[in-house]
Amino acid sequence: MSSLGSERDLIERIRRRLPAAPPSLVVPPGDDAAVVIPERGAFQVLTTDAVVEGIHFDRRFSTLADVGYRAMAVNASDIAAMGGTPSLALLSFLLPAATSVEDVDALLDGILEMAAEAKLAVAGGNLSRSPGPLVVDVAMTGYVRPRRILTRGGGRPGDALYVTGSLGAAAAGLEWLRETGDEAALSEEMAECLRRHRRPKARLRAGSLLGRNRAATACMDLSDGLADAVRQIAESSGTGATVDAGAVPIHPGAATWFTSRGRDPLLSAVAGGDDYELLVTVPRKAAGRLRGVQRASRGLAFTRVGELTRESDVVLVRDGRRQPMPGGFSHF
């Protein structure tokens, strides 16, 4: 393992690994700050999120490339949930004393992989020593056209609730790693759960299409689970919500895992975090637009799981019985 050397040397090493700057980045990494030409006729979308060792990831279960990928994906997911398209990222690394050059290279492997998938550029960042855990902090910008912005508060009573993909995989994958950890004889379904935990897939194309086509009135990603997202959209929109338990798309591997532990697969899936799917509200008049988004989303499933209501209650309807929505997941 090689020592980090000086801050200047490490910055130069990182800078050499970055792809060529896009034309919009008129002052690229290497100066005091980046200078960007904004997207013409669009609003900027800004977000920031950090992943902290011991809170958001465990090095026993994830490689540093996984950590770098995750740090980028969780920010890109927030921009997708606004109907936007990610464009630029700023990185801050808080590095413990034991960090090596190879560790930084591994982080960059994941960061640059996710940046390439999202077609966004790394515009610069900051390095600092840390007396505590490893922290990778990302600030990300994107853009969205006027009248295409999605928020949590745009829903109306009668709007249908749709969720992308399937739920519970990331939570099941993390539990499996904590309890078992032997990856020699994994089923393909459980292997997918582990991948979903280590490298969450931001629904970038779907989020952009939902905003561009005006198919949705509200949107939120499922970083803290479906239960939390339904509650937050209902609260922000001034409505209630009902979710049909039988319609919730639970990942098969997650269902098998939760059942094997004597747990309710449904409650475990809706309360589990780190899925990074999208929850969207769709008015009746936009049903055709949503079908267009589905066709353009390259096989991504959109499942109707409920609707917003005039009553303020947020409930789960199961076998004809109404019960309070369980609590969501919290990293804090």
Which secondary structure elements does this structure contain, and how are they paired or packed?
Layout: H1 7-17, E1 25-27, E2 35-36, E3 43-52, H2 64-81, E4 85-95, H3 101-118, E5 121-129, E6 135-144, E7 160-164, H4 169-179, H5 188-198, H6 204-212, E8 218-221, H7 226-237, E9 240-244, H8 252-260, H9 265-271, E10 278-282, H10 287-296, E11 302-309, E12 314-318, E13 321-324
Parallel strand pairs: 4-5, 9-12
Antiparallel strand pairs: 1-2, 3-6, 4-6, 7-10, 7-11, 8-10, 9-11, 12-13
Helix pairs in contact: 2-3, 2-6, 4-5, 4-8, 5-8, 8-9
Short description:
The chain has helices spanning 7-17, 64-81, 101-118, 169-179, 188-198, 204-212, 226-237, 252-260, 265-271, 287-296, and strands at residues 25-27, 35-36, 43-52, 85-95, 121-129, 135-144, 160-164, 218-221, 240-244, 278-282, 302-309, 314-318, 321-324. The protein has 332 residues and is α+β, with helices and mostly antiparallel strands.
The CATH architecture classification of the largest domain is: Alpha-Beta Complex
SS-derived structural category: alpha+beta
The major β-sheet equals: 7 strands, mixed
Taken together, the total number of domains comes to 2
Q: Enumerate the spans where pLDDT stays under 50 for 5 or more consecutive residues.
A: none
Average pLDDT works out at: 95
Helix content range: 25-40%
Name the CATH class of the largest domain.
Answer: Alpha Beta
Q: In CATH, what is the homologous superfamily of the largest domain?
A: PurM-like C-terminal domain
CATH topology category name of the largest domain: Phosphoribosyl-aminoimidazole Synthetase, Chain A, domain 2
Number of β-strand runs: 13
SSE order, one letter for each helix or strand:
HEEEHEHEEEHHHEHEHHEHEEE
As a whole number of angstroms, the C-alpha radius of gyration is 20 Å
Strand order of the largest sheet: 8-10-7-11-9-12-13
Could you tell me how far the N terminus lies from the C terminus, measured between alpha carbons in angstroms? 33 Å
Number of contiguous helices: 10
Shape: globular
> How much strand content do the residues show?
15-25%
